[in-house]
Amino acid sequence: MLEGNRVSRISVRGFAVASATAVTAVGSVVGVASGSVAQNNNDAEATAADTTLLADIPAGQQAQVQTASLTQQADAQAIAADVSAKKDAEEAARKAAAETAIAKKEAAEQAAKAAKEAKERAAETKAAAASRDDVRDSSSFPAQSSYSVAQIQAMARQMVAGDQFQCFSNIVDHESSWNYRAVNASSGAYGLFQALPGSKMSSAGADWQTNPATQIKWGLSYMNERYGSPCQAWSFWQANHWY
């Protein structure tokens, strides 16, 4: 053929470069090239020198190249999945550990609070018991025909523990205003503590109707036995307006 019309071997190869699927030197498919026929033989030869074409690989080996490429992709995806799964597992473990630590801390705080409250109650009960052992008994007061509020309060101060007296006094103030002969016209409740029936106070002495010391003895015993102390009885009274 004439020199001007000769289609060189390189130009044919350049056409193949522009239209075939390119495979890198390690065998991975990198894309499908599309476009017009190369206009310059030098450009085509440069491309051909750096690229191995799937079309240039023997037909019997093309399937192996494609399989190897897919295997590499699958391996890469598997590795990425393993890394992601490991990261998720580590994050879940950290979260679970943090939640467990918080739960243990809250449980410890609640246990400490309960222990503190129990200790305080025990100390209060012990102190109240110790104080009761030091106070005067109702029988140590001589009987009188009548008593003033001041005299009754003086008796109570000697019979009720000092740290409990104010609570005790609050209850008496609300129930009878320190009138040991007070009677509720509707119910018949009687005395300093408005016992119902008033005869309940006979357990503290036969003179319960006329002796405020006997009534104080009964009222103090009732508060200690039912509520633990006069202050605990007063707390109940404040919440319910009765005790």
How would you sum up this structure in a few lines?
With 243 residues, the chain is mostly helical. It is built from seven helices and three strands, in the order H-E-E-H-E-H-H-H-H-H.
Q: How would you classify the helix and strand content by structural class?
A: mainly alpha
Q: Terminal Cα separation, in Å? A: 127 Å
How do the strands of the widest beta sheet line up side by side? 2-1-3
Task: Quickly count the helices.
Answer: 7
Q: Provide the gyration radius in Å.
A: 51 Å
Overall shape: rod-shaped
Mean pLDDT: 78
Key terms for this structure?
7 helices; about 240 residues; mainly alpha; three-stranded antiparallel β-sheet; rod-shaped
Could you walk me through the main structural features you see in this protein, from its secondary elements to its overall organization?
This protein is mainly α and 243 residues long. Helices cover 60% and strands 4% of the residues. Strand 1 and strand 2 form a beta hairpin. The longest helix has 76 residues. It starts with 8 loop residues before the first helix and ends with a helix. The relative contact order is 0.07. The N terminus is likely disordered.
Strand and helix map with partners:
Blueprint: H1 9-19, E1 21-23, E2 29-32, H2 41-50, E3 52-53, H3 59-134, H4 149-159, H5 165-175, H6 212-227, H7 230-240
Helix pairs in contact: 1-2, 4-6, 5-7, 6-7
